[in-house]
Design brief:
By secondary structure, this protein is of the alpha+beta class. 46% of the residues lie in helices and 14% in strands.
């Protein structure tokens, strides 16, 4: 495709003399865009007049790949690659859809392991979000970023012990998980507890470094405001929606796993600005710690002869033709849903990914209209988007 077929919307020049506006490409390869994100912005001085996020800049045909894979074995490795910060949450979204389509049960013991693994993934994702957001706001390698990377690596150590991988886990199986806790299991449980016991003090440090920081407050409070009605209109979910006071969390509102048997709270903030979305993620770290601790207690006390990690699943799954389902989980970024329709073979006729980051990023023009370029950067980071999930 020649360059002329994708001409700049403001004619031959970057500057429009009539309206005194300037067209500016932000990204795609820039630290503030968190990877390969391309934002086409129109500026009037330093004020943002229009923003067009290029949601298809990184597109990897994941849906088509999954439509060519078998339900039982070939699809599960791919969800880790959508949001590579919270892979087990992604695996659970597919597992939940396929298990509903094929009418498969999951043992309680495996449900607890899934719940623990998903919350560890949520912790890993939120630590990266908080650390990189500090870079967006302060513009340098701050103590917050270094602390967040430290804690992220500690979480990955636990996930590596559990799954054998640090990023592309492929740990869930239809009907359960691949294997039990690593041996010696008492040592693994103790390592998890040691990490969780140290987090309250670390969370206080994050609050000192971010929440009470005057520069951070001035950059984030009353900027990037997302009204609840607008959030609902765009289909925003997760911390982005809960930061606008929308009390919605699939772990509670459409219970799955072992969440309904565990005590925890849905976190919301009412301000709807960049600051509120950071507060939600900080408080969700505390809630995930509570969930993992309760899962560890249950796993440690579970009778040895009842530790079933998988139910009996047919070697080949061929759901009835025309059968369809949609199931979703509360991923680290929001509602990650999977729609699957069967044609009677062992591969899906249609596989559709409902990405939370796609809807969350789509709201960017609404939250940045009339703000400064620096506020645009702060808004991008506060939405916490992973580009691999936006263009699956």
């Amino acid at each position: 495709m020649t360059l002329s077929e994708h001409a700049n919307p403001i004619a031959d020049d970057e500057h429009d003399d009539v309206t005194d506006t300037m067209f500016l490409n932000i990204g795609p390869h820039h630290p503030s865009t968190h990877g390969v994100m391309h934002v086409k912005a129109v500026l009037d001085g330093e004020t943002v007049v229009d923003v067009d996020p290029d949601v298809g800049y990184i597109h990897r045909c994941e849906e088509q790949v999954c439509q060519q894979g078998t339900y039982r074995h070939q699809i599960m490795p791919y969800p880790d690659r959508w949001d590579w910060m919270a892979g087990l949450c992604n695996e659970w979204a597919y597992a939940r859809a396929a298990e509903d389509l094929a009418d498969l049960n999951v043992p309680d013991y495996a449900r607890i392991i899934r719940t623990m693994g998903a919350e560890l993934s949520r912790l890993a994702s939120h630590f990266i979000s908080l650390g990189t957001y500090a870079l967006d706001i302060f513009g340098e390698f701050t103590a917050t970023f270094q602390y967040a990377i430290r804690d992220h690596e500690l979480v990955l150590d636990l996930l590596e012990d559990l799954t054998g991988q640090r990023m592309m886990y492929n740990y869930f199986r239809l009907g359960g998980v691949a294997w039990d806790l690593p041996e010696p299991r008492e040592e693994f449980v103790e390592q998890c507890r040691d990490f969780l016991d140290g987090l309250p003090t670390k969370i206080d440090e994050y609050h000192d470094l971010l929440v009470t920081n005057e520069i951070f407050q001035r950059r984030c409070i009353d900027t990037g405001i997302l009204e609840p009605a607008v959030a609902k209109q765009y289909g925003c979910t997760g911390p982005v929606a809960r930061g606008s006071g929308i009390d919605y969390d699939l772990r509670r509102d459409d219970p799955y796993g072992y969440y309904e048997n565990i005590e925890w709270d849905v976190v919301t903030e009412s301000a709807g600005d960049n600051f509120a979305r950071v507060l939600v993620r900080l408080r969700e770290v505390e809630e995930s710690v509570k969930i993992v601790e309760q899962c560890l207690d249950l796993l440690a006390e579970w009778p040895e002869d009842e530790r079933t990690v998988q139910s009996n699943v047919p070697r080949t799954l061929k759901p009835d033709p025309g059968t369809e389902t949609y199931r979703a989980v509360e991923g680290a970024k929001g509602e990650l849903g999977i729609y699957v329709r069967s044609d009677g073979t062992d591969t899906p006729a249609r596989f559709k990914i409902r990405s939370p980051c796609f809807s969350n990023l789509s709201v960017l023009p609404a939250v940045t209209d009339g703000e400064y370029v620096a506020d645009l950067v702060a808004a991008i980071g506060s939405l916490d988007c992973i580009m691999g999930e936006i263009g699956p």
